[in-house]
Amino acid sequence: MAPKKKADKKSNDKDTGGKGKDDKTESKGKTGGQAVLVRHILCEKHARKEEALGEISKNPTLDNFIAVARLFSEDKAKQGGLLGWQRKGQLAPEFEKVAFGLQESKGSNLSIGQCKTAFGYHLVVVEGYR
Fold it and tell me: Which of the two residues, 14 and 124, has the higher pLDDT score?
């Protein structure tokens, strides 16, 4: 009878606290995950950041953001501003607050955040959360 009790215990664990597919999907939202796939445009001068924002507003898509980043960003320009996956605590606090508050940008659904850090002025886009 001991094996039967172990089987019962396993089924109870799944019912009360085990993580299934439903648990994982419920915890994920469009904002606020533990890591973000982020791009940015960094400009030393406010006027240059505004100029980049004006170019993006002409065609507010992720592809255009990447193209504008290659022209205007003073950091990671060749990668279209890609910083890659960044976890909480890895970014400047001002940048992190903006990045983890943005919705995912996909195609023509572009959500841009702005902030100023010790590095300069940033335009921020998040491509994904995990």
Answer: 124
pLDDT in tens, 55-78: 999 999 999 999 999 999 999 888
Nearest to 35 by CA among 70, 107, 106, 83: 83
**Of the candidates 115, 105, 11, the residue with the CA atom closest to the CA atom of residue 63:** 105
CB neighbour class for 66 (10 Å; exposed up to 12, middle 13-18, buried from 19): middle
pTM above 0.85, yes or no: no
Strand intervals (E) in 30-119: 35-43, 82-87, 112-117
Q: Which uninterrupted H or E stretch holds 127? A: strand 120-129
